[in-house]
Design brief:
This protein has about 90 residues and is of the alpha+beta class. The protein has a single domain, classed as Flavocytochrome B2, Chain A, domain 1. Helices cover about 35% and strands about 20% of the residues. A hairpin with a 2-residue loop joins strand 2 and strand 3. The relative contact order is 0.28. Belongs to the cytochrome b5 family.
Length: about 90
C-alpha cells in the first residue's frame, strides 16, 4: 500500500512524516496541514520551537531531499507526490 505525501513536509532538506503527531500538536493539526508538501523551515523557525520539540522530530524523520539537484518548482511537485510504501 502507498500513501501520498499529504502529511509530509520537509525542513532543512529533511523529510518528516508528521501523521502520528497531528492530533497532539499544541498548535493544532491545521498548523501542520498548512505546511505539508512544502519546505516548512521558515514556518518552523518563525514559531521558535523548544529544544525538546526539535529533538522530538527525530522520530518522524523519513529521509532527505537534495534540493540542489531539483529546480524549486519540481521540488515542490516531488514533495507533494512522494509516496511511502507501508
Amino acid at each position: 500500500m502507498c500513501r501520498l505525501l499529504s502529511e509530509y513536509f520537509f525542513f532543512f532538506d529533511m523529510v518528516y512524516d508528521v501523521t502520528p503527531f497531528m492530533d497532539d500538536h499544541p498548535g493544532g493539526d491545521e498548523v501542520l496541514l498548512s505546511s505539508t508538501g512544502k519546505d516548512a523551515t521558515n514556518d518552523f523557525e518563525d514559531v521558535g520551537h523548544s529544544d525538546s520539540a526539535r529533538e522530538m522530530m527525530a522520530k518522524y524523520y523519513i529521509g532527505e531531499i537534495d534540493a540542489s539537484t531539483v529546480p524549486a518548482k519540481r521540488l515542490a511537485f516531488a514533495v507533494r507526490h512522494f509516496t511511502k510504501k507501508e
